[in-house]
Amino acid sequence: MAALEALNEAVLDCRRCPRLVEWREQVAREKRAAYREWDYWGKPMQGFGDPAARVLILGLAPAAHGANRTGRMFTGDRSGDFLYAALHRAGYANQPTSVARDDGLELRDCFIVAPVKCAPPANKPLPSERDACAPWLHAELTALTAARVLLCLGAFGWDAALRARAAVTGEPVPRPRPRFTHGAVSPGRLTLLGCFHVSQQNTFTGRLTPAMLDEVLERARSFAHTPQP
């Protein structure tokens, strides 16, 4: 718990990626008209959830006017509406909505992290930015000692999880490299489980439905409660 709190404080000072620092702060200054009264977060994104979580959810990066505005992953945008409603149905969240850091939301047995901590232009971090941010994710996985399942939202989260698992556990990335698909599984001390990202591109088109996400969360729970060999 103390290690995770110290890590969450340390990440706030990170300025490793000039392009991301410039963008996150520009967005926070200029704002979107609908949120002109908001005091944007505009800083790197801290992890959020239960420090004793067995299920970790890996996204991509903070949304410019979502998490970069509110200061909490998947908070204040349509992706978060979809995700937290599912987490509530599955019993991982005490409420189905997430609109602000002080809205009373709590997670149980679940923790959410961003492989890239700052909002990137066009929601597309560069490989160099992904690599610069990787030590933060590695440190989070090290601090979250109860973690058993990494639920990866999208191919970016899947790739970040493969790299992070190898760095933290010492287990090499499997060969051939496991490909991301919805429902893909890569077993190990930390089991990877793939899920289409909760982006509007997927949820508005029906590529990812509430039932599909519910099923993935149930599989995550099953893996998390399966004794390790």
Q: Can you describe this structure?
A:
The chain has one domain (2-224): 3-Layer(aba) Sandwich (Uracil-DNA Glycosylase, subunit E), CATH 3.40.470.10. The protein has a six-stranded mixed β-sheet, sandwiched between helices. α1 packs antiparallel against α5 (127-143), α4 packs across α8 (210-224) and α5 crosses α6. The chain is built from eight helices and six strands; from the N terminus they run ααββααβαβαββαα. With 229 residues, the protein is α/β, with parallel strands linked by helices. It is globular, with a radius of gyration of 16 Å. The mean pLDDT is 96.
A few lines on this structure:
With 229 residues, this protein is an alpha/beta fold.
Low-confidence runs of at least 5 consecutive residues: none
Treating each run of at least 4 consecutive H or I residues as one helix, how many helices? Answer: 8
Class inferred from helices and paired strands? alpha/beta
Helix coverage percent: 25-40%
CATH topology: Uracil-DNA Glycosylase, subunit E
Biggest sheet, strands in spatial order? Answer: 1-3-2-4-6-5
CATH class: Alpha Beta
Helix-strand pattern: HHEEHHEHEHEEHH
Distance between the termini: 26 Å
Task: Identify the CATH homologous superfamily.
Answer: Uracil-DNA glycosylase-like domain
- Rg, nearest Å: 16 Å
